[in-house]
Amino acid sequence: xxxxxxxxxPGVARMFDKRDTPENLWIKCPISGEMVFHKDLEAGQHVxxxxxxxxxxxxxRFKYTFDKEWSEIAIPEVAKDPLKFKDDxxxxxxxxxxxxxxxxxxxxxxxxxxxxxxxxxxxxQDFAFMGGSLGMAAGEAFIKAxxxxxxxxxxxxxxxxxxxxxxxxxxxxxxxxxxxxLGIQSLRDHKLPYIVVLTDPTTGGVTASYAMLGDVHxxxxxxxxxxxxxxxxxxxxxxxxxxxxxxxxxxLDKGMxxxxxxxxxxxxxxxxxxxxxxxxxxxxIAVKTAEPxxx
Length: 295
Description:
- By secondary structure, this protein is of the alpha/beta class.
- It folds into 2 domains: 1-52, no CATH class; 55-278, 2-enoyl-CoA Hydratase, Chain A, domain 1.
- Helix content is 35%, strand content 16%.
- It has helices at 3-7, 10-15, 38-43, 58-65, 91-102, 136-152, 170-174, 176-189, 204-207, 230-237, 248-253, 266-278, and strands spanning 26-28, 35-37, 70-73, 108-115, 118-125, 156-162, 194-202, 216-219, 259-260.
- The strands form 2 sheets. It has a 7-stranded mixed beta sheet with strand order 3-4-5-6-7-8-9, with helices on both faces.
- Helix 6 packs parallel to helix 8.
- The N and C termini lie far apart (52 Å).
């Protein structure tokens, strides 16, 4: 106990309890090291003044993408801990911690709303939920999003963010890769656009499946996109990788990505692409974000 603590009465000390101060009041930009006030970061759609696109969850993504209101679609339930997996803690404990942290049942969230006047089904992958890992629940959510798009006759836009397959579900996780391709094929059978927006990071089995099967591939600036990470590749080939290797701009130059788009410009870009693919005229939209409607 320091001298100031000894002079401060308990009642006064409680008035300034650390719990009254948000832990994320200031956020450090990974690029510049600049401290950004959280309100300013939110006003800039979680893009720092240096241009770094911070990782965001489904709530923020829906808010930034849809014109006005949107309706969330519940993801299907799946078997819990089918392999009874345990490392340093049981798999159900990890799931419970991730659900408490994100307020979501799993790494995927589905919503339907309008993007620049075009009704669209949107699927968002949340990296905050166990690294956005692809497991049975995420696979079922992807199929559900495809089915919703087919039923509603809407395009499907998927925002990817993942470290790969979920190891706690073993081969059951890997089975989701071919299953998602079947969902994409159903969209193509019904002549519905499938657009992928690659966000930081998109790696592993997600990159090896639905993330690279879009009709159009858009990426946010600076996003890490690849199968294995750059450190693993360098250790394997024992060579230094080129500057910016596996980043959005590098992949755009190599033809793996169609367009790199700033987060604030994504709705307009998506709207233009969807109208062209659906052969619809341009609409004058007064964009105003709002709270989500009830599903």
